[in-house]
Amino acid sequence: MEINAVRGTRDILPDENIKWQYIEHIVRNIFARYGYTEIKTPIFERTELFIRGIGETTDIVEKEMYTFLDRKGRSLTLRPEGTAGAIRAFLEHKMFASSPLTKLFYIGPMFRYERPQAGRYRQHTQIGAEALGSINPFVDAEIITMLINIFEHLGLKNLSVELNTVGCKECRPVYRDKLQEYLAASENELCEDCKNRLTRNPLRILDCKVSSCKEIVKNVPDIADSLCSDCQKHFDSVKKYLDLVEIKYIRNKFLVRGLDYYTKTVFEISYENLGAQNAVAAGGRYDNLIEELGGPSMPGIGFAMGIDRLVIAMDDQKISFPKEEVDVFLAIMGEEVAKYAFNLIHILRKNDIHAEVLYENKSLKNQFSYAGKIGSKFVIIAGENEVLKNIITIKNMETKQQSEVNLEEAIAIIKAQVDRLKV
RNA sequence: GUGGGUGUAGCUCAACUGGUUAGAGCAUCAGGUUGUGGACCUGAGGGUCGAGGGUUCAAGUCCCUUCACUCACCCCA
């Protein structure tokens, strides 16, 4: 019986992994410029953390967590998102005590027990960032501009930024009541799910995909008209900052996020051709979460983006990824020269040259064919002639020029042609 | 958890209303060129037709069951 990868998980094979490394490389550089430093937290935590952090009535907690008991009967859960763990670490190490502002980022796998579909996996990888300690709308706008900056560096186009606010402890309940009252009039026309949401979480009706619900929701009161003055000013400032640097966004009054902890600013960046799951990045502000997890009263904001989906979007736009190039292939003729060849390729590599070789004794034709296939710039032949005459036979695969030189000259020839080695 | 679609060679796909030994392209390997690549030519290897059961003289094809993949819903990166 063949064992294969479990449902919703997959192997990232070398050809695709090149893309992942490239994305991570770009993202790390940009984070560095914005002052975000990397944190690694465990991929499993006590279940309690996610229940308190994400919210008991969210779908993630209710039905999507990979939860198990360890040998001592403690309930543990594979992390479904990154914020809760990052904040836990932030509090556990009292990072708030040594700095007024902490900016963290992380890259790693997340786990959700959902049915897989296009752009959705049970194990997927998120790149996330959290800015802890500032209530200033400056940060909200900055974090969105940072994301745009990342996408621009990756060469991704046609992304749309959607922006909304979900208010705070003061004004959200007011809006919630208003909304509930408005929707109650059409209760019988709502879908079954939304009938439940009406009492449990009316805000979620706003992004229901059932067309009849969409119709009902169309003229619903706008939360922007119910905000307290603090949230109102905050939202206005965020928009002004974005306008200032000419970042285009769409105000979407139906945008509400699935996690309970969000306050004020929420946003989502999506790409149309991804299929039904079209968000590549999303996030928002969470001004009560740190305190709810047992820390000081302290605001925060963060986002997460999915590498799996980024790769799909970049493939869709046919964005090319730089790949490692082979500088020289060493063709070995006959077993007698094995020692000579072993030493030679060792020296080449010590000189930072990417040298490849096939270990099996194959025909020269076959070896040249392979060198062409892997795109090697040069081929060096290690045969009896070379050993006897103590010379290096080197061929430039593009110009087809072949010459006999000594070792130093061979290295110089290669370095002159390979950008990476020129200094 | 619910619904639709699809499972044939390493990959992409053929095989008419059931009918002999299941084919092709790409890839791989060998030879044409015994020390020289991409093109071309010739040839070779590679399949329990997803699995199990049933109908039939006969099943890749029809029926049932099951598994996997896939897309969509709920929800989300």
Strand content: 15-25%
Helix % is 25-40%
Mean pLDDT: 91
Number of domains: 2
**Tally of helical runs:** 15
Assign the CATH topology of the largest domain.
Answer: BirA Bifunctional Protein, domain 2
Structural class: alpha+beta
Task: Explain how this protein is built.
With 423 residues, this protein is an alpha+beta fold. The chain folds into two domains: 14-171 and 227-316, Bira Bifunctional Protein, Domain 2 (BirA Bifunctional Protein, domain 2); 328-418, 3-Layer(aba) Sandwich (Rossmann fold), CATH 3.40.50. It is 38% helix and 21% strand. The chain has 15 helices and 16 strands. It has helices spanning 14-34, 47-54, 59-63, 83-92, 137-154, 172-184, 192-200, 211-217, 229-244, 289-292, 307-316, 338-350, 364-373, 384-389, 407-417, and strands at 37-38, 44-46, 66-69, 75-78, 102-111, 123-132, 159-165, 250-251, 263-271, 279-285, 300-306, 328-332, 355-357, 378-382, 392-396, 402-405. The strands form three sheets. The protein has an eight-stranded mixed beta sheet with strand order 1-5-6-11-10-9-7-8. A five-stranded mixed beta sheet has the order 13-12-14-15-16, with helices on both faces. The relative contact order is 0.11.
